[in-house]
Amino acid sequence: MSQSFKDFERAGWESVADEYAGAFGELTQQSIGPLLDAVNAESGIRLLDVASGPGYVAGAAAQRGAIVTGVDFSAPMVAAAQQTYSEVNFEQGDAEALPFAEGSFDAVTMNFGLLHLGDPDKALAEACRVLRPGGRFAFTVWAKPQEAAGFGITLGAILTHGDMRVALPDGPPFFRFSDWAESTRSLAAAGFTDAAVKKIAQTWRLPSVDALFQTMQTATVRTAGLLRHQTPEALRSIRTMMSNASGLYLRNGAVELPMPAILGAAKKPAAPKEECR
Ligand SMILES: C[S@@+](CC[C@H](N)C(=O)[O-])C[C@H]1O[C@@H](n2cnc3c(N)ncnc32)[C@H](O)[C@@H]1O
C-alpha cells in the first residue's frame, strides 16, 4: 500500500483530534464494554490499545484495573488522551510497526482503527506479535453502510449528487472488515485462532438534521476528503439530501441513527506453531 495513504491519514488525524472527540466520542464509547469483555480485560492484565485516539478504551481498561498502554500515530490524539487519562501510558507509534517487544501484552484492542490503516494485515500481525501466547485480541469496525445509517446516508448522497472517483490516495476498502467472513479469514491469516465475529447495536445521537453533514465534513478523514473534492453545487445537493434523510430518524427533537459495530475477537495460540505474520 502506498505511503501516501498513510501520510494522508496521519495528516487528517493530526488536524481533527478535537472535532473527532466531540462528534464521535459518545458513539465509539458504546462498544467499549463488549470490546474489553472480548479480551477478558480485568485487574492486573497488561493491555495495549492500538489507534487509541482520545483514549476512551484505554481509560476504561484502566478503570477495570488493567495496566494499560495506548498507542496512536497522531501526536495531538496522544497529547489529548494523556491529559484526560493520566493513569495510562500513551505513546506515539504506528499500528503497522508497533514499538513494543514480542509477547509484551496479555490483551490488545483496536476500536474503529483497522478501517483507517493502509496495511491492516500488517497491523493484525503486529497485534499478534506483541501478545503473549494465549493472549487475546479484539477490534471493532463499522457495519456495512446498509446498516450503519450515518455512512449509508452520506455515501448515498455522494453517489446521487457527486463523484466517488475523486483523487484521494488509494487505500484499502473502508468496509473490508465489516464482512464477517473476511474478518475471520484475516484474523486466521495473521496467526490467530478461535476467531469470533458479532454485531453490536449502537445509536448515534445528533443534535440536528444538518449535524451528520457537518460531522462528516469536519471530524472524519477519508469521508471528509471525498466531500472536499465535490463541486460547490454538488456539495449543496449532497447536504440537502443528507439533511432530508436524517430527518427520517428524528426522535424527540434529536436524530438517532443506527450505527452498529462489528466486533472481531481471537486468541494467539498458546503454543504458536509458527510466527505471527
Ligand atoms: C476513528 S479513530 C478511533 C479512535 C479511538 N480508538 C476511538 O475508539 O474513538 C482512528 C484512530 O486511529 C489512529 N490511526 C490511524 N492510522 C494509524 C496508524 N497507522 N497507527 C496508529 N494510529 C493510527 C488515528 O490517529 C485515530 O486516532
Quick structural summary:
It contains 11 helices and 10 strands. It has helices at residues 3-15, 17-28, 32-38, 56-63, 75-84, 120-130, 149-161, 180-189, 211-218, 222-228, 232-247, and strands at residues 46-50, 67-72, 89-92, 105-111, 131-142, 193-200, 203-206, 250-251, 254-258, 261-267. α3 (32-38) crosses α4 (56-63) and α7 runs antiparallel to α11 (232-247).
CATH topology: Rossmann fold
Q: How many individual helices?
A: 11
Radius of gyration, whole Å: 18 Å
The CATH superfamily is identified as Vaccinia Virus protein VP39
CATH class: Alpha Beta
Q: Which small-molecule species are bound to the chains here?
A: S-adenosylmethionine
Overall 3D geometry? Answer: globular
Oligomeric grouping of the chains? single chain
Percent helix: 40-55%
Fold and architecture overview:
By secondary structure, the protein is of the alpha/beta class. The protein has one domain (3-267): Rossmann fold. The protein has helices spanning 3-15, 17-28, 32-38, 56-63, 75-84, 120-130, 149-161, 180-189, 211-218, 222-228, 232-247; strands at residues 46-50, 67-72, 89-92, 105-111, 131-142, 193-200, 203-206, 250-251, 254-258, 261-267. Helix 3 packs across helix 4 (56-63) and helix 7 packs antiparallel against helix 11. The protein is globular, with a radius of gyration of 18 Å. The mean pLDDT is 96. The structure holds S-adenosylmethionine (SAM). Residues 9, 13, 24, 28, 51-53, 56-57, 72-74, 77, 94-96, 111-113, 116-117 line the site of S-adenosylmethionine.
